[in-house]
Amino acid sequence: MITPELLRQARIETVAQSLREDIGDGDITAMLIPADKQAQGRVITREPARLSGKDWVNEVFRQVDPGVHLEWMFNDGDDLQPNDIIFRMSGPARSLLTAERSALNWLQSLSGVATQCAAYASRVAHTKVRLLDTRKTLPGLRLAQKYAVSCGGCGNHRLGLWDAFLIKENHIAACGSIAAAVAEAHRIAPGKPVEVETENLEELKQALDAGADIIMLDEFSLADMEQAVKLVGGRARLEASGGINEQTLVPIAETGVDYISIGALTKDVKAIDLSMRLE
């Protein structure tokens, strides 16, 4: 679970890194502008989008110059239309221009994730399924991207390797069996969710008998997914995974599985086209 404090600390650290890589030892182009020159501007979107990243933009400007004032017209999770003004800004012209690229990078990238998630979620809104992200995130940006996933109406899978078990083929082989792996997981960390990846109905039965909380159906056919839902009967939650795309999403959701995990929610994302204009 992403707590507010965990997210705040990650935001401070990653924004600082983004500013270091962009500004280095100083913005020499901004030095062309008189230090006392004040300016105001606005950021607009050129395309429809689901907004995410407001606090990252605030943090960019806070670290560059706390004297910059931002006025937001929208909040994270809001839907935007082309030419909407997302926020206005005022303050030293140097600061506005120095912070511009880093602020827009965060906002367009996280809004890209949220927009993609919103599009996927809308396609399965008529079912009970919950779409989940994966660990296929940009290195160093996992918490930010997983936050953006929630802005798009989807859910988070594990944050990492510490907060839940996901027992896969190689873990099973090393432990000797599904039953042995699940029993050891319960012994090591009682109370933490235990998920088992299965490749066929026989392995699903073994995971169910072993007491798995969640059973992943890895590249099951639609017919086998429907059979799995009937077989499990609510005794464990079922997650479909593996090669899921826009063509297969809805039929899988309609089988009755509880979750569908999709790496594309965070790894195959197009940034939203935003623009900052000084007035």
Account of the 3D structure:
Helix 1 (4-23) packs across helix 3 (93-123). The mean pLDDT is 96. The protein is α/β, with parallel strands linked by helices and 279 residues long. It folds into 2 domains: 4-121 and 269-278, Aldehyde Oxidoreductase, domain 3 (Alpha-Beta Complex); 125-267, Aldolase class I (TIM Barrel, Alpha-Beta Barrel). The protein is elongated. The strands form 3 sheets. The chain has a 6-stranded parallel sheet. It has a 4-stranded antiparallel sheet with strand order 3-5-1-12, covered by helices on one side. The chain has a two-stranded antiparallel ribbon with strand order 2-4. It has 10 helices and 12 strands.
Please describe the topology of this protein:
Blueprint: H1 4-23, E1 38-45, E2 49-50, H2 54-64, E3 69-72, E4 79-80, E5 85-92, H3 93-123, E6 130-132, H4 142-151, E7 165-167, H5 169-175, H6 178-188, E8 194-198, H7 201-210, E9 214-218, H8 222-232, E10 237-241, H9 249-253, E11 259-261, H10 264-267, E12 274-278
Parallel strand pairs: 6-11, 7-8, 8-9, 9-10, 10-11
Antiparallel strand pairs: 1-5, 1-12, 2-4, 3-5
Helix pairs in contact: 1-2, 1-3, 2-3, 3-4, 6-7, 7-8
